[in-house]
Structure prediction request, 270 residues.
Amino acid sequence: MWTGLGSWTPHASPGKGRAAARRKEGNQEQLAHLPRPDWLFCLILFCFSGKGATAHLETGGFIRSQPGVPHPDIQFHFLPSQVIDHGRVPTQQEAYQVHVGPVRGTSVGWLKLRSANPQDHPVIQPNYLSTETDIEDFRLCVKLTREIFAQEALAPFRGKELQPGSHVQSDKEIDAFVRAKADSAYHPSCTCKMGQPSDPSAVVDPQTRVLGVENLRVVDASIMPSVVSGNLNAPTIMIAEKAADIIKGRPVLWDKDVPVYKPRTLATQR
Prediction:
């Protein structure tokens, strides 16, 4: 851990806590013309069934931001309702929205200890939107979401645009909206990079052992050298399963002939 409190760490590693990668998303909302009937809420409340009983983030998708990108770098979460401040603020209107953001952001943050008291929360600085690439990618996210919301299939439900609003059109206006409204999409990672001992930015070795410290391993999303193109649940489970095999001394199950998906064409965006 980069302490910020002096040089009392057991092993000095410049990489500890210095590459915090956190996802960031923006919300775009449309007013809905067709309100949900009261009987739908009765089904949820008394029968635990019906269309309204499903998870709000049941529909999602990945897309390439532009032609030539080898793998999808934008993620969508579609919601059939209006969610404000992660659900902490109630809403009084019928709407639907999408949470969208780049999955491979280039802005790098950091974290450090707040004090010598282990009960104190750490200081976290995500450094959101600190690179021009991230700003451009978010701008594309807004434009692509508007393209999706404009599809004919949504015409019966589509009301006015609530967020960012029809008045937000220029690149400068979109950038200002993103800076004001985009929020954390969680998935922090990469603060304890895995790498070779010769790598000064590495914190753990390929066996998950903390460099320079005996009998200590780190097995979680923090050891990712770079953030993955999606959510962290499944990759973190895979890291833990692999680490369990390493700790138990099980032989590596590796097949060099396992295919890796490659898109048939890079000339198109989708």
Notes: The chain has a mean pLDDT of 84.
